Write a sequence for this structure.
């Protein structure tokens, strides 16, 4: 499958409207009343034959959580000098302008000086001027507190109760509503949660079933608009076993991968990539033993902010580079926009 229309290369198969692996998966049922999420159940993304225009998916049904009816994924146009990407055919000229939408927590959020800084703050620097990053990650959020207004009460299913509109649909957070309104064909939606979701109490708690359903709903909303969804496993905190860093984040790492498999969405395994990076940089054992603090010295102290989770201005760009590496490895359309 070719990447976004890069002039001068042989015309490869046109990609389906939202990317070859992002067409599957209906709108998820997000535990309790979370199932009625905005964006509706869009038609599956169009497929594309070699060198020919992709066939658009059927029109979606409007969701009950607000937002317009989903559109079927647009088929990729035939590339004349490169591969078609997300419905736009390469013509040997400049790539079309696209937006990279990012949803996540504090490890992704722009943050503030001197720290913590999330990797999303440094991602724009890795892209050409034809791609614009809209980093809507918010510190402290689980996937459901990022999507919805959530109460501090747990329902009978073990999920946190959502605030509802008069018509019974969930109250959406402004960041998600803005994405639903702004995503267009050719854009990319990157989703990374799985840290705050493990909280045992509401409003942040999200069970793995509701977690996967929320990811599926978000991916379908992107596909319905012709955008490419990408799931990212949560980065590992720095945890040492002797001289080796070991993975953390528990069930939310396989849950992210399972959601990708169910919904046909590519997954960047940032969890494994961060553990490999920590070992390559010899972070373990942590100087002074115990956990990372504001007074921790050495490379690990420079990389992290003042704990084992949050990144400094030194560490965040290196995490952003891992995301870029994952995009290239998966040969996603956005790879054509990387410097």
């Amino acid at each position: 499958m070719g990447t976004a229309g890069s002039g001068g290369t042989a015309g490869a198969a046109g990609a389906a409207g939202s990317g070859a692996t992002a067409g599957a998966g209906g709108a998820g049922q997000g535990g309790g009343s979370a199932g009625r999420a905005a964006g509706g159940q869009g038609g599956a993304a169009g497929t594309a034959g070699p060198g020919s225009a992709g066939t658009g998916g059927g029109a979606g049904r409007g969701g009950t959580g607000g937002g317009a009816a989903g559109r079927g994924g647009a088929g990729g146009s035939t590339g004349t000098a490169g591969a078609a990407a997300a419905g736009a055919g390469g013509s040997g000229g400049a790539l079309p302008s696209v937006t990279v939408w990012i949803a996540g927590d504090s490890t992704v959020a722009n943050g503030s000086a001197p720290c913590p800084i999330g990797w999303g703050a440094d991602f724009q620097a890795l892209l050409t001027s034809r791609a614009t990053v809209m980093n809507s990650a918010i510190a402290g959020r689980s996937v459901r507190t990022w999507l919805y207004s959530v109460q501090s009460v747990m329902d009978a299913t073990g999920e946190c109760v959502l605030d509802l509109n008069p018509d019974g649909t969930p109250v959406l957070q402004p960041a998600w509503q803005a994405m639903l309104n702004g995503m267009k064909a050719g854009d990319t939606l990157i989703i990374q949660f799985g840290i705050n979701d493990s909280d045992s109490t509401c409003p942040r708690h999200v069970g793995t079933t509701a977690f996967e359903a929320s990811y599926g709903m978000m991916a379908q909303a992107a596909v319905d608009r012709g955008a490419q969804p990408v799931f990212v496993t949560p980065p590992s905190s720095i945890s040492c076993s002797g001289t080796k860093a070991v993975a953390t984040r528990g069930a939310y790492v396989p849950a992210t991968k399972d959601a990708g498999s169910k919904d046909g969405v590519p997954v960047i395994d940032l969890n494994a990539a961060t553990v490999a990076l920590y070992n390559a940089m010899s972070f373990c054992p942590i100087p002074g033993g115990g956990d990372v603090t504001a007074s921790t010295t050495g490379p690990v102290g420079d990389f992290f902010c003042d704990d084992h989770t949050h990144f400094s201005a030194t560490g965040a760009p290196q995490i952003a580079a891992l995301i870029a590496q994952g995009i290239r490895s998966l040969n996603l359309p956005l790879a054509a926009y990387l410097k």
The first strand starts at residue 98 and ends at 104. DSSP finds seven helices and nine strands in the chain. Helices lie at 143-147, 174-182, 208-224, 252-263, 270-280, 298-303, 315-329.
